[in-house]
User: Fold these one by one.
Assistant:
Number 1:
Amino acid sequence: MNSESGQRLSMEELKQRNLPPANPSQRDWDELLAQLNRLEASVGAQEAHARALSRQVGQLPTREQMEALTREVAQMQATLKQAGKRRELSVSPSSLRTALSVLIWLALILLGTMVGMVVLQAIWSGLAALWSAVRTLIP
């Protein structure tokens, strides 16, 4: 290496020139202690943050758990969407058979009612004729 005057200096001479003063002043010493205290406080805060983060890491879900949750939410949304739709009228053989059997029963009940009414009408007419005959016999 070269010095300002252009001569080559040995490594030992360069080290000697770059050495800090042997005894720092009281002011320098106080500044160094203040810097050390600030660094220690900063490291303490960072250590507390690192501990808090390491506690939280165990509580967070894994990637597989998040994917499973995403699938379940999508399935629930699809179910809710389907449940919200109005049901369309669908005719299947079993429902058609049920409807026909209900109609047959209703027709039979209607027919029975009509026959019953005819029978009651006949009875009523017969009783009216009988009453009329009895009335003519009794003066």
Note: The mean pLDDT is 83.
Number 2:
Amino acid sequence: MSDQDLSPDALRILRGCEGIWAERFLNRTLFPAITGSHLIGTAGVKASLEVLADPLACVRVFFSHYAFARRGKDRSNSIALANESLDRWAEESASVFDEHNAERLWDIYEEVCILHHKKSLEQLNRGVIAGIAELAQEIYQDLDGASLATWIATKAKSTHRVEDCFLRLVDVRGIGPKTTSLFVRDVIYLFDLEATISHVDRLYLQPIDGTLRVLAPLIIDEEGIDQAADWILAGKLARAARRSGVSGIRFNMGAQYYGSIEGSRAAVMIDHLEFAFSGRTKEDH
């Protein structure tokens, strides 16, 4: 596949998502989510890396913006309860990451739920909360104080692969492949490692959502591509981005952000290509 294999609309979508829509995602969503501020560009990257390098702060970011992203209306409550518990746990111990499990964190979570008159929902939440904390402990102890994020970056730098980290995160009960892919994608982008990742692992940097499924037939000329399994679609979109000289990560980020603004209805996307992928919105027109 090369530029010649892609339609003008396909190239416009790939380049538009990679460009201004990815910038909007980074500056309006990712940097503020990690840093709590509205830094942009290299300042946003630098501040985000500083937060993610801290093991406790990195777990807090994971709880706040990844672990419960698919919880719908319960998302904000889940985040608040998990982070309050994390903070109380950290206040109790000189170093929670030198401990050998996160059983105390779960005990605190149950106490916090009682305090706020919420159910702890152990089957749903224990794996996410205690499981991620225990993985963070394991990483911290094995890699001389590394965080979840610096663990992924270190492995990627040494092996040019992310599959092992992806599979280890997915192995945590309650953490699915889409959540994992989002986190790994963002970490690899912030550490500027996308170009070093083996082509065979680029699919792990393409979380698939409704927007990507709507855009897929406009980029990839294959019958039924919008119905393909997530991993197949992710691989094909990563390949299309690579062969057209576009950052697959930025394309994915931009598509995600565009979908969050415009919605993922096919009619909206197709009817407004000239706005969406020139970097304008209908309101700008």
Note: Confidence is low (pLDDT under 50) at residues 281-285.
Number 3:
Amino acid sequence: MIWTLFWLTGRLAGSVGASVLQKRLLGAGVGIGHLWMVTYGVIAIPAAGLLLAIPMPADPAFWHHALTAAALDVAGNLAMAVSLRQSDLSVHGPLNAFRPAIAGLIGWLFLGEVPSATGLGGMAILTLGALLLLDPGAAAGRHELHKSLAGGAWRLGGITLSILGASSLKRALECGSAAWTLGIWVLAGSAALAIVRLLQRRATRGPWSPGPAGSGPQVAVHAGVFLVMQWCTLEIFQRTLLAYSFAWFQLGMVAQVMLGHWLFHEPQIRRRLAACAILSAGALLILISG
């Protein structure tokens, strides 16, 4: 239990820290593609070292699960970065509460798992909390409303890809070590981003803009924080159920609302904290429903 709390603390700190750094870098003009290409490129070095130091998994199924997780997480990270650029940090973070609902929906569609009345009630409460969270306020215009909804849609898409990737990561952990799972996840993700960059090699702006001079060290710090977060995530996946992991990860939502207000002067802190409480209640109901 003590080690689970240790890894959970590291994961929450890494998640909040990575989101703050992403918000700052994207706001400064660093392109989404450039941010993640450099991030994966930096952490590919220690990832390769892990593969050289640990024996290779013998189960062939490991490669399928690890490579699938890498592809899904790259797409999910890009979608979440788009969401973070278009929405406030204090909106981006709390939408994590939708993870149990999306996991339940995926189970219903692909595994035939029918949600209970309690689970459906939790999903309804989540929807209410999301409406409160995404509403830009009466004083905002139609443009702000569309921007908020677009940011929420990208976030939910990223969360869905993340859940699918997490499922593959957990299966990979069952077939191999955490070190090899992390190493293949990083190197395969790096290769996927390199291919995308090669296909768009003429693009120098937009997603591939390096941003202002001096942003390189901050991107490197983001890479280090992201690597620690992912390692902690794998350790937690090994110690508890996937659904429980997602429930614990939501503890960082209040921190993201507070940091969004303090660091980026984001408005409506009281309403967004109230939305956090509603989202937490909905997620708890889904968790109780099993």
Note: The chain has a mean pLDDT of 81.
Number 4:
Amino acid sequence: MRVLVERLLREITEFVEQREDFVLLPAGSSDDTAILLAALRNVEQDLGSDVFLIFADDFVQSGPFVSVLVERLAEQVKVANQALAEERRTLFPDVPRELRDSSRAAPDRFRDAVVFSRALVPREGGHRVVWAICPAQIKNRVAYRELIAALAPTQGLQPWMAGVRLIFRDESADAADALSRTPRVRRLPLDFGPASLEGSLREEVEDSSRTEQERIQALLSVALLDSAHGRFAEANSKFMHLLGYYQQAKDLAMQAFVINAVGAVLHRTGDLPKAEEWFERAVPPAAEAKQPIILATIVRNLGDVAFERRNFSAAEQYYGQLDALSAHLLDPEGKVWALERRGLSFEKVGAMGKAVESWEGAAQLSRSIGLRTFLKTNLEHLERGYRHVRADAKLHSVQNELRDLHRAGEFE
């Protein structure tokens, strides 16, 4: 992520500072808009002598959209004038009335707003005005691109464009379309998807200009991605390197995290004895570091491995510990899950009375905080448990509750 964001910052900065192109089209999905906006704010801070006018309103139609931009511009001028008045400095002129005339063509009003905005910076000194139009949603892309095309310098740079840069977020960076081929219009593809993020992390690992801590953090992220995508040998190789680093740094919390990650890889590959061994190794550093969240994850993993190895007595104890840790962490979902699994462990060793007690606790907590899916699951366990212990009245009550849940349309 860091590499991708730094690249975006460089591209925006270079566009603002160059003098050949007038329009920049950062193109990507709506999911990329927040990152683009954050990058623009960063560039704004770095280029303190320039004025950035950044807008993120949804686009539906050109006329109403430009009206909103004008109102936003008027608000910014008003705020700026209040500050100038307190400092007894010369005020900016008010937004001209004709900019608010909705009977005028939207591109004309936009162009006049840009011309007016030049009054917000000194004429001398190379100051620029940057208009960044970044709609979170572009609901009429044809109209949106028509507005951009009307402002693009198809006839070359015009006097009103001096000292101005226009940035429009778009949804596609097709190099073959007419707008992208317009002179002095620059395309900037945005891609913060999983593949790009992974590639940037791998670049960061190899980047000798980074601090060791930055490269280690990137390596950890890549190792976790390797594990998530089933590249287990690659993941474990990286985890071993990371473990050595954190042991040398005496970072107990991260030692526990990485050891648990190795156990998780072994668990997914089906090597349950070794997975259990690594999970057990993770407990002491997590406990010594006083990291209850990491410890809860490790204990849950130990419970799962014990259950899969049919060591149900050990599993019940681990899930009991997870129940206590979840209560300490104020994690109701974790507590409900632990109670359910503890009940299943009791059931496997024939202690149905204790199993029912555990599921009752899980069901009651699920009711109290609205965990419908958890409630249904535990009611189904209780239906089986009450039938086994012949608690007919409770069985009838649970069956009615399950029927009401289905009748309410919670589970179709």
Note: The chain has 16 helices and five strands.
